[in-house]
Amino acid sequence: MNSPASIPLHSGKQPIQQGNLLEFPKNPIDCMRRLHAECGDLAVLEDNGQRIAFVFSPELNRQVLTDSNTYHSQFFALRGGRRSAQRRVTSGLLSMNGSEHRENRRIMMDVFTRRILPEYHNTICDLSHSLMEDWELGQQRDLNVEMVHFMLRMTSALLFGIDDAEYSVELGSKIDRWVRQNHEVGIGALVSAPEFTDSYGTLLSMADDLEASIKEMFAKHRDGATKGQRSDVLSLMFQAQGSEQQLSDEKLLGHATLTFAAAHLTTAHTFSWTLFLLAQHPEVMQRLAEEIAQATTGETPTFQELQSLPYLDWVIKESMRVLPASSYSQRVTSTAATLGSLNLPQATPVIFSQFITHHRPDIFEDANEFRPERWETASPSAYEYLPFGAGPRMCIGAPLAMMELRTALAVILKKFHFQVNPGTTVNGQVISTMLGPTSTVEATLLPTTELPSTVPVYGSIHDLIDLPSAAKPDAIRRAA
Ligand code: HEM
């Protein structure tokens, strides 16, 4: 938390606004859009001497993201006491800085790049088929619920080697609830609001419970893992522990928890948004269906076939541009720093935003529209398009996430198309930095011989992106 500065906060023109810091956590996207419009690429929201700084341009993104010595990661505002379970379960990459981060990241990168990707192909295909096992043509499904559940199973399988559906949902949901509680209590830490910090006790007991569950899962897993027959990420971490003696049990516990937390909802939200966008853009769905039909044979695409689906890649990239599951991230200054025209005191939170950067019209034409074709020519820099972050803390799971998305979408779309139900409400909201649907996304299962049509929908989705005019609520009013 940041107290009134002994150093002058700014020099030259002031992009500082007095306001209520709670405006940011209540609706991060609206708050950032307003600050960007009113203050420009660099903004500071100040409330009784407490401040949050915001950067909105690729160049400022670059400055903040490349200088990891000055801009520390502080994903979890509340780490708990030194010997607490909260401290241990938050001890993963997202909370580390400096040499500790570099060393642990090296070990994790090694784990993530070792012969994993081709081996995961079969697991992803199997789970995609099992997702559709009880789907029938004409049925109504909530795309959001389906994808969150699907990714609980997938993430538990790929990261922890868990193939028991019930157990994976139980453990994964526990991690998700704990992440959400961190976010709620963390807002209190950011803005010093007592109403948020009341739930700190609940957070600590959730961490105790979560730690016990992760330890139990480790115990169940260990026997199988040491036989070297398994290729889930945890098995590889156990092996790294054995060979390098550098990963203590405590570190492993934090890495396992935070990797799951980083992997699950980000990927689930990306799936939900992509299926929703495809259903509302039939011409995109048609081109994609043609590509999948031409490039793949059989019910299940092979690993090789999946390497030649360029349009599918554009669809995923565009979905992650226009509705990035990671909508913003936070750093905190480890020392007094100069950023653009500002002098920031030590411990100032600094926010950068994928959502704002990806919606800049000077980088992407018709930036609020979903247009996969733009990727035929678009070649943004790493700081203009950053769904997985950029620089020394860029997502280590990006290749795995892309493989999950590419593979599962191809398998699913070979069997079903989706028609969003007319008049359904689609709300998007940022919770714990992640932009996901917070309402049902009701859809009907279509055969692949049919294309969906664009239908009017209600909800805050219209504040986030420009859907085709047939999707706007006035289409419902006109028809009435
Ligand atoms: C579509 C899915 C995903 C998205 C959008 C996403 C996004 C991100 C972003 C933006 C960051 C950087 C955050 C920052 O700079 O503060 C990040 C970091 C990270 N992600 Fe992902 N991620 C995804 C999937 C995954 C998966 C599947 C895994 C693991 C299996 C994973 C593990 C991590 C880890 C461990 C970090 C921390 C890296 C570090 O601090 O060095 N992510 N992710």
Provide the residue-averaged pLDDT.
89
**Any idea what the shape is?**
globular
* Side-by-side strand order of the widest sheet: 1-2-3-9-6-4
What small molecules accompany the polymer chains?
A: protoporphyrin IX containing FE
Q: Which stretches of 5+ consecutive residues score pLDDT under 50? A: 1-13
The H-level CATH homologous superfamily, spelled out, is: Cytochrome P450
CATH class: Mainly Alpha
CATH topology title: Cytochrome p450
Count of domain modules: 1
Over the alpha carbons, how many angstroms does the gyration radius reach? Answer: 22 Å
Q: In percent, how helical is the residue content?
A: 40-55%
- Main pleated-sheet profile: 6 strands, mixed
> Which percent band covers the strand fraction?
5-15%
The number of helices is 19
Distance separating the two termini: 52 Å
Observed structural traits:
single chain, 480 residues, alpha+beta, Cytochrome p450, six-stranded mixed beta sheet, 51% helix, 11% strand, disordered N terminus, binds protoporphyrin IX containing FE
In a few lines, what is going on in this structure?
It contains 19 helices and 13 strands. It has 480 residues and is α+β, with helices and mostly antiparallel strands.
Structural description of this entry:
This protein has 480 residues and is of the alpha+beta class. The chain has one domain: Cytochrome p450. Helix content is 51%, strand content 11%. The protein has a six-stranded mixed sheet with strand order 1-2-3-9-6-4, with helices on both faces. β11 and β12 form a beta hairpin. α5 packs across α11, α8 runs antiparallel to α10 and α12 packs across α15. The protein is globular. Bound molecules: protoporphyrin IX containing FE (HEM). Protoporphyrin IX containing FE binds next to α12 and α17.
